[in-house]
Design a protein that fits this description.
Structural class: mainly beta
Helix content: 10-25%
Shape: globular
Oligomer: single chain
Radius of gyration: 20 Å
Strand content: 35-45%
Number of strands: 27
Strand order of the largest sheet: 14-15-17-18-19
């Protein structure tokens, strides 16, 4: 599975987005919609070399036109499925070998919804250079989910109970009872770190969503039925899931510096989370956060947390993003200094983005 996170208009549809006198044509939008989403590729290794089997029937695309149902029979804005998937970033793999792909900066394409104190909804338009909402008025609430994809069939579903936000990373871990636990970051300044505990083995359709309070070392339940605060603020569990950021903030979750990918240390059981940066708070270099759940149990609702590695000139890296433990238990890390900031202060000392090896 390969994510196609964004379609640069300049190169994909030849739309010169910097020209204010131009408006995208429908043909240009359609071309970009076919370029986002992701690809399933059938690979073979022969004589030590990997290659794509180009005529394989298993090769397929999921894009912004693919009809994808909401898991669990949910209806969102009156519809049981969404038109397409987009802004796909990072993800993970389930123990039953399906792909998880995360819809991250969905608001660039269809805008975002906000609610006033009376619950009245308003929609903020998408970015003009990216927006698909010029010709397709799809609800923003149809995006911002984790998408589960079956590799052999291409069948997909949006996992509503994992919550809606700018997902980056969906790291799976098996509990002792064979239920799956998924850790997820929300890649935006002052957003939160989440955990989903499945209701039964072999499925992520049903379960309970939690958000981290780092100071107290607690996972806070986002279950509407259990929480009077949520019942007062939201009309249903579905509203809590759609507006997960608001619900998490209401419960006192800890704002973090763009929590992105996370991985589980195969030796210690610790959860390592990449916090990329938060320039507005004077933390431009980011850090790696380490959470150790009680008894190394992913079903535990308490943990200890500490900053494990700080970005900066002393450690030689800035803006940690994606992580991976190798088979020996050592950590690999990519950095993601944005295009606008690369080789400029305060990032001059770091040069280009890099792949780092952290021996443990």
């Amino acid at each position: 599975w390969v994510n196609h996170e964004t379609a640069d208009p300049q190169f994909v549809s030849q739309f010169e987005y910097w020209r204010k006198d131009l408006k995208k044509t429908k043909a240009q939008v359609d071309k970009e919609m076919k370029a986002v989403g992701g690809s399933i590729l059938h690979l073979r290794q022969q004589d030590g070399v990997w290659s794509v089997i180009k005529d394989s029937k298993l090769n397929r695309r999921l894009d912004a036109f693919t009809n994808i149902p909401f898991a669990g029979g949910y209806k969102i804005r009156g519809k049981s499925s969404a038109q397409g998937t987009l802004a796909n970033c990072a993800g993970g793999m389930t123990p039953w070998k399906t792909f998880l792909s995360c819809e991250e900066n969905y608001h660039h394409y269809y805008g975002e919804v906000s609610f006033d104190q009376s619950g009245k909804c308003s929609v903020k338009a998408a970015k003009p250079e990216m927006g698909f909402d010029i010709y397709y008025q799809n609800p923003p609430e149809h995006y911002g989910w984790v998408v589960e994809i079956e590799p052999l069939t291409g069948k997909a579903q949006k996992l509503v109970q994992l919550g809606r936000f700018s997902h980056e990373g969906a790291t799976c871990r098996l509990a002792a009872d064979n239920r799956c636990v998924v850790y997820m970051g929300d890649d935006a300044d002052d957003q939160f770190f989440y955990k989903f505990i499945a209701a039964k083995p072999g499925s992520l359709v049903d379960g309970e969503l939690y958000v981290a309070n780092i100071e107290k070392g607690e996972w806070l339940s986002l279950n509407w039925e259990k929480n009077p605060q949520l019942k007062t603020a939201f009309p249903s569990q579905l509203d809590v899931l759609i507006r997960a950021r608001e619900a998490a903030k209401l419960l006192g979750a800890t704002p973090l510096d763009r929590p992105e990918d996370c991985e589980v240390d195969p030796v210690t059981g610790a959860v390592i989370l990449a916090c990329t940066n938060n320039k507005s708070k004077g933390r431009p270099f980011g850090s790696l956060l380490r959470l150790m759940e009680k008894d190394k149990d992913p079903l535990s609702l308490t943990f200890t947390a500490q900053t494990w590695l700080m970005g900066g000139e002393q450690t030689g890296f800035a803006c940690p993003d994606n992580l991976l433990f190798d088979r020996l238990g050592n950590l690999w890390m990519t950095t993601d200094i944005s295009d606008d900031n690369l080789n400029k202060a305060p990032y001059t000392a770091f040069g280009n983005n890099s792949l780092f090896y952290i021996p443990l």
